[in-house]
Amino acid sequence: MGIILLILVGSAIAAVLIVAATKSNTSRIQRSATIAAPADTVLSHVEDFQKWRAWSPWEALDPDLHRTYSGADAGVGAIYEWRGTGKAGAGRMEILERTASKIAIKLDFIKPFTAKNIAEFILQPQGDGQVLTWIMTGPQPFPVKVMGTLFNMDDLVGKDFEAGLKNLKTLSEDPETAKLVDQENATS
Hints:
The protein is α+β, with helices and mostly antiparallel strands. Helices cover 38% and strands 34% of the residues. The chain has one domain (2-187): 2-Layer Sandwich (Alpha-D-Glucose-1,6-Bisphosphate, Chain A, domain 4), CATH 3.30.530.20.
């Protein structure tokens, strides 16, 4: 009986490793939302890292999150570093590109694991508003492929993207809410 169990466990591990080996070397997570607001209004909430507290799904993970802002106030060269004691971990973001329809961010995770990604926020006009697409891409080393075989990373991170896009939609479509949030962030 013990030998059969050993063979089954060994086969299961081998299957996971084989499936992981066939996965892409690059990960990509993408979600979109339609927002009834001008492009500049939408992107103003993304290009200013201090405004992320109002919409980012990860900002509320750690009430003791330590934040540091440096570089430009907004747009290209703006830098945001965070260090948490819990789920938020630690990392750094820097805006590399800002056009009328796109923001590209270098996103480096330090804790709980090291990863280097690019996050993009791309707008495409649609009717009276915009379709905002949030994309994160990065290298996917073998241990991440194994983890992705066991857990659906697109679902895990994608739900956070969806929550963030919903928050961005609310802020962008309701100027009064955005104004109140800006005032609150200025005092905290």
